[in-house]
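Listing S7. Sequence submitted for prediction.
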Amino acid sequence: MVYCSHIARRSVFLVPSCFFGGICLDKNEQNKNNNIISFVPDGVFYYERALAEIQKEQFPEALKYLKRAVELNPDNHRIVMQYGIMVMEEGRFEEALDLLIQAYELEPTDREVIFYLAEIHAHLGLLREAKLFAEKYMDVAPEGELSEEAKEIIEFAEQEAAFLADDQQGDEEVHLLQEKARRLMETGEFDKAVTVLEDIVVDHPESWSSFNNLALAYFYRGETTDARELLYDVLRKDQGNVHALCNLAVFYYYEGDQEKLKPLVDLLVKIRPYQFENRYKLGATFALIGNHKEAYHWLRSIQKKGFEGDAGFFFWLAQSAFFSGHRQQAETAFSRLIEIDPSKAGLEPWIDANANQQIDESIYTQDKQFLLDKISNEYVSERMFGFFLLGKSIHKQEIVAHPAYIDVEKLEDLEKLVLASSLDYNLVEKSIADQAFNRAMQATELLYAKHNPLDEEGTHLFQMWFTLFETGIEKQYPFKNPNAIAAAVDFMFHSSRSKGITKTKLAALYGISTPTLTKYVSELFELLPNFS
């Protein structure tokens, strides 16, 4: 049971506006002798701005100013305390606990800090600590203004904790420390997270979740061997530990070790967990490594059974739903994500976050394996085609971010240019060759506009075109007229397959004359293999 506060924002008004040794900012003193003094805002400045916003009941603004005040004056226990109180009012109890503990370490005799430590522990259900701090407040301020609230906490804790076992309390403490480590990892403070987690596993050698989180922290810190060994040790002692298996899959995925990843994924597919926690872990892992059908199955299964979900849950549910063909469910899940975390707007899986444009959803740009086969093909022209399609793909961010899929250092210069173009980088024209490349890319886009969404025949057309593209660049062909180039490629490909295609129709389609089309067809034929 969670203790419910009876304070309702009263607490944020406790500190007077001038408390740094009685010193206030004096504008007249600052401007003495008419000297112009550069004013650099400090913690006092932002603290007073926060108080002003609180008086106006503009609590989001007040929270922002208090956060800045803490950043500038992290050693002032009163500012840290006030920020912790407001964070607690926002319902972010674990974060508030860290702040109030920080304030307590700075000034362990401050009666208000002691009281709010009692309150935050009560909110978190840590009733033993809540009672201890409330009793300590009564010792130092038996007639204090918060004494009645302190008595309520003591009574509440005694009633609710009468049968609380020590091992249950230990589990709660471990959970709290794990949450602290998780927040540290989210902010990139992996060294601090490792310290917290190493302390947990020493005191709780069978806390497998702590070992799993420590392995993640090692991995993010670059200690991949230690991370894997830790998970192997967990699996030796707790065979079938779902979290350890999932973490190993993530490690193999990011390291590009397909040989080890594939059999592990085959094993994960066979697992049928009952607990929501394990289903969530499986679903998120499958979504991260691109097995969206399995991801959607597990994430949707716990949602149907009443799981409310957090921001991470709805992010992965939206991803897996969209990539497995459940567009409506994806949109619903992403709408819920935006409600929880508005900063995720623009990261919808069906939208190119870089260009803020709708991405083509044809079968070949949705087919991740098709793209991977293309960009790993032995022929340069095929890889060029793959990189071009990647720019249109719903899998662009995933494939580009994966360390094993694209090794830029091993690409030919022409491939690098096509890849850069697909990622919305424009080549500055400093030479004739640069101009030729840009015009060839313009022709590529014209062809794509005419044949999107691609069918199988369309992919064959582009395979032919990128062969011409590669050869033309090698032979310093200028690609002077992109419209005519695109029309010529279209005619060359389709005239060999259909008698109904005429130069007149193709020329009109691309806005050029028939003689111009004839000229460029002749020039491009010279670039085809086995033609002199």
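Caption to Listing S7: primary sequence and predicted structure tokens for the chain studied. The radius of gyration is 31 Å. Strands lie at 351-352, 357-358.
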